[in-house]
Amino acid sequence: MSKAFNILAVTMLASLAHSQASAATVLNFKSDAYFSNVSNCSGGSPGCSISNDKNVLKMSGATWPGNQSSTMTITDVTSPDITTNQDDYLIGSITWVNRATYNTDQDFNVKYTFSLKFTNPNVDADSQLFKLQITQPTNPTPDNVFNISQTTLDKLGPFTLNGVTVSDIHFVLAGDGWYNGNKWKNEEGHTSTLEIRADFKFDPVAPPVPEASTWAMMILGFGGVGFMAYRRRRSGNALTAA
Length: 242
Description:
- The structure is a single chain.
- By secondary structure, this protein is of the alpha+beta class.
- The chain contains 3 helices and 16 strands.
- The strands form 3 sheets. Strands 1, 2, 9, 10, 11, 14 and 15 form a 7-stranded antiparallel beta sheet that branches. Strands 3-4-6-7-16-13-12 form a 7-stranded antiparallel beta sheet, with no helix packed on it.
- Strand 14 and strand 15 form a beta hairpin.
- Helix 1 packs antiparallel against helix 3.
- The longest helix has 30 residues.
């Protein structure tokens, strides 16, 4: 009876473990941000432009040495399989390299669109448009990015997916610079990064409910064990009577 019971227990545990694994939730997402529609940028060299992939904004103003422009570069994030709660998880960023310039005094506009696209646990997406105003006064005054608003970013969340809540999507300043929830400032000669982070909360996984086939296996197993115990008891009684 002990051997039969062990076989039954192992079979049941394997079945339940498979059900538990099947119930696990996996989160996958991709952020996809880009620049577009530069306007009112005049004068200076090499001028304002957006790269072909729309991830780099080159800003007006000649620099020493090499005549290079200041840049803003977008970094998109593609998540690995996320299966546990995460706080302040990085979902995107913009890095601003502010080179010391002369002869600029620019006040121009550019659009920045941030999109978040989920493929698991179900397909969902949303995006927000920021209409940035960028000022580049002649050095050494810090340059500014206006209208990069936390209030605008708040409109992205929260997401409610199957078993996952995505919330508290917010900007976080990394490196040099200064950010107050609407204006981003960076001194010339410095590099500043504005990260976008979010919280992911997974619903607790309920104990798995055995499928019909599992219940049938359990009933047959217990029935078999009971029958073996009954036969053993009868055999014992017969020997005692003899």
